[in-house]
Fold each of these.
Amino acid sequence: MDWNSIVQAILGVGAQVLIPILIIILGLIFGMKPSKAVLSGLYLGTGFIGMTMAINQLTAAVGPAAKALAKYTGINLPSVDFGWTGAAAITWAWPLAFTFFVVEIVINVVMLLMKWTNTMNADMWNVWGLALTGYLVYQMSGSLIWAYIAGGIQAVISLKMGDMWAPEIKDMLGYEGVTVPHIEAFVAVLMSPVNKVMDYIPIFNRKWDAASLKRKIGVLSEPVTMGAIIGLVLALAGRYSIGNALNLAITTGAIMAIFPVMAKFFMDALTPFGTQMSNFMKKHVKGRDFVIGLDWPILGQSTELWVTMVVLIPVAILFAAILPGNTILPLAGVINYCIGVGGLLLTGGNLLRMLVLGVIYQPLFLYGGTYFAHSFTKLAKETGAITVPKGSSVSWSSIEAPDLRFLMGLSGRGNIMAIVGLIALLALFVWLYLQFKKNPIPAKKYEKSLKEETK
């Protein structure tokens, strides 16, 4: 059996198995009692499975509504949206994909030893995102060396984002010692200038999270109510019958109410683990506060996250219909995790900012899916991992970090404009990183504004 087959066999069990096992091992290393370490791992696995089931159910519920809405708007686009699952399937089938584990692990170890990061990335399943960057950059540049360099750049960015988000995640969700070093949040970099402009507009500087809305509008701010309203509006826009519209409303409302319940398992898993890790580090490693990098579903108890992603579904469909040159209809990727996660972490859960930023930046992902359709289709045909419909192409309507991947790919060709653009984008990331080091919890400034208003 070759190394690729071994890696594929290990990955085949899924993130819901791999990450809990790793957490159990780390828990034992940090001195947790075996029973508590196993319980943390099992609760984490339960959280991931429960959250995945809820996400799949939400996608299954709103997908047909989105398709119906597209049908009645007369959209007919050639690129089939296969979502992140399709992208992951064809990426793992690429023979060089498993080599990016080496890129991820070596960079993480070196940065930890050099004290350039405090994030230990345990989200190994999502190394496929690194491999996908490598493949896309290789297709654009023709240079395998540059593909690995681009993967390394992405790994560094992800770890530094993990450092950025950790204090905010602790404040927002109460999770000690964990973070999200996921490249899907990179859209926060492009969002940051607009978010900065919003600082000068009073309406955006109030608290617009679910808790503050509950004080203002009561039952309408409850996740179950907001989900039902969103589902009903989406169904009626898709010309559902009253019965089917009510069914979708109840379904989306129920799923929105289930998300915080599923997220409680993350709390039960990560609170004792994070506390034990923190105590271990304070005792054995002076001056270092290590955090464990996990996948984005640990943010799932945020109502603002789900409201943003579901509200933006019809917005994505509308943009697909009117944007010149767009070739992809959002279906499998219609729930845009990038906008949700990036917006949440950038704004500290300010729902109004998240929605406005989501509308502004939605076209980025449609054009990204359009641009990379050729590469996705080529990889799908080469690997045979999925079937490409005859006369069509496949792509991903909410592709992660399309701007970064695009600029890195063209830079590998020696394109001067792309090189300048990449330098500017990385400089903007550094600026955002420094902003978060200075003010690590953006939601705090809205609390200050609220206090000032009530004086």
Amino acid sequence: MKSNIGNTSLLLAIAGFIALEVGIHSGWLEGAYWRILATGFEAGTIGGLADWFAVSALFYEIPIPFVRKHTNIIVKNREKLTEGIVELVTTKWLSPDVLREKLAGLSIADSLLRSMEEKAQVEKWLNFIRLVLVRLSGELNHPKLPVFLQKVLKDRVQQVDIAGPLGRWLQATIREKKHHDLVQMGLDQFSLSIQEPDTRQLVLQKLHAALKQYAEKDWVKKSAVWLGQKTGGIDPEVLTDRILDLALLLLEEVKNDPSHPLREKLDQYLLEFADNLENGEEKTLAYLERLKQSWVLNEQTKAMIQQVLDRLKDGMQAQLQHTDTILMRLIHRQLTRLLDDLRQDQEGRAQLDEWIRATVTQLVNRYHHELGNMVRSSLGKLDDKGIMLQIKHKVGNDLQYIRLNGAVVGGLVGIAIALIRWFLL
């Protein structure tokens, strides 16, 4: 195991040194060569111990007076180490210049097209698009969306000139007699409205108010109204029914006779209104503007928009259940067509690369400081033991070779010194 190399090398150096010294002092080993070898193991022991202390001092506190304050270096200097790592990442490894240089050498569009040649990759993109659309469609019933759309419609309706086109369309419709069905529907609805109890009650109230106003003019009219009511000659109930019957009879005549004077008069009014719209008559335009705004901003329009959004949401949710639906097949075809066009368009690929580079560069310049914050935050979450163990886990095995090198190099240096001493003596 690599983690035992340092300990093994140190133990070998110590064992060799002790064995040789015992052998020499006991007379079992004689000669200068054994002394030179013993000196090498002695120096190897010193080198191994020195490097053991140096490596251990990085991670642990060594309880030796005066020396202990310079041990446990990683924990005691974690803030400096953290800032050093942050500076190294942000100014060297992932600096804006480095990232721009890396991006400049990448053909992002070609890489994207190559990846999209795989069916599985296309399926991933389709699923991604589907999930995005699911999230978006899920917000279609948000209660604030109809209000927002009403405001958008209000602004757009103000900017759109519909007076001229509406006036020309209305003129052509009336001249070609294509409006009779619409008039017929309006008359039918008006007939139904006349027969409603609320309409009768309203007419009766108006008739009472008219009789009262007439009677207040002078004593003769007041007497006539009083006498008529007393004798039954003036009965508001009967008069109301008679008025409504006459109105219904008149409506039937107008409905059944396309050339009825009232219909011709209505057509004349409509043509005049259409002409005012086309020519931009001020009062007509003001009326149309009020009509547009009242239609866009009323509660009925809001409810209608909400209904449309609800149905749109239900339809989209059904189409986004899986990738084998009409909508998703359409998106698949459009995605495939887009990729095919991009493969044939070298200039388009270059523009896409440039756009991606510019976008990424802009994001890097704007949020580059967040890289340092991310590194600083990640390191800050570790306690002293955690950060020490992480560093030790990454470089601990390599540090064992420092201890091995200390023992080996120390031993070789010791042998060299012993040889020099032997030759000189």
Amino acid sequence: MINHRTVEVTFHAGRSRTAHLTWGQQGTWDVLRRWLPEMKPFFVLTRWLDVPLLLEVDDVLAQLSHLLQRHESLRTLFPAGVDGQGSQHVLGEGVVTVEVVDRPDGDPVSFADIVTDCLGRAGGRAFAHDTELPIRFAVATHEGIPVLLMFAVSHLAADHLGADLLAAELAALLRARTDGEAPPPARPAVQPVDLAVFERSPDGQRLNVDALAHLRQQLRRLPADPLPERVTPLTPRYWRGELSSDAAAVALRLAARRLRTTTSVTLLAVVNALVRTVCATPVYPLDIMQSNRVEPELRYTVTSLNQAVRTAMEVSGDTVGDLVGHARAAMGAAMRHARHDGRAAAQVARAAADAAGRPLPVGGQFNDRWSLQPRPAGPAPDPQALAGLAATTTFEWPQRAAAEAMPLYVDAGGTAERIHLSLMADTALLAPADIRGFLYAVEQVAMELARDEVSLRRVTEIFDSHRLCEVPGHPDTP
């Protein structure tokens, strides 16, 4: 029988302090308040990692204390004032409860099931941010010997890159403990309170002014109805498909090298080539998500740092190469203007809608986390090997929802070797067969783009062939 118990980890960091929320935290705070008590998958981020052999539970707990001391975001409470505005209060000392799940010898339950169960419990409920630290830990043991470490962190305390940084840092701390070495030094990083102070400084406000000026420019270019409804929507209305592909990962790198650009620009161009098939105008609204880690001092910051930049995305042209040029310009502008006050941006958008006498059109969001993965070591694969890699591609329907803020969400994650590309779409715009076909078409267009230029007419042919064909084992309705 699986045994459950809890233990406490104490931390003593030496100082407590309070500040306003950063721009990134404020955006996450507003999204949480908009949807709760409904839980969206991105509200809580989960990770797990192996525990090296020879460590005891107390060794693991000691490293968790190190982690909490290093990152103020993990020991922060986020109380709401009487007006509903959030703030951040960093604790100088405190306690976090850790779940320990022990599997006795001979028990048939797999550790995979234990991980799924632990992360499901930790990530499936909202954090009480005013009283609860924004991270939950669990340790899986076998006969008392630590095997796996898991955590669930609130999006208020970390974005996806921040969660990855935490997992990598925990792995390094555990390895140092195993080797009998001192903990590796913390990497220099701006703490969220210091970032909040900077954002209210003259230099920070200049960033905001520039970003809002860019936003006004983009809003003036948006058409009235770029993504009209095409079919009768299903219930629930929004479906998310996810494609996992080795071939697309290799193809995007080969295509980016051939086109002399980045993998993120290449992926955006391919996505836009497919959006163009359902877009009624040569421009559509697209929120380009940025990690906001361009500055060296922010590279290792753990907080909710990413922000989206509303863009009038150009999709005119004859080839995917034409769209690469549009994507390169849009991505560069988004990178320069991604740090801004989201509430001020919302006021700018409302003023633009009032001036136009109509609501602003809604479009899509592009969030590419995969391109930040390190490139695999070794020479680039032969483009002729792509067809063989495509045989390992998988597809699933991980989510359906009754409501979303936009008709299209494209998200790219995964590992260096395998991209996980997901599309959440309004079924009034893309039926489930279209969602599935869209993702398979991204893979094929990338594969053809790795070898040569691809016309937008060819992109339409590829999309039509995938949306009309049956993929074995992946029907529209599971």
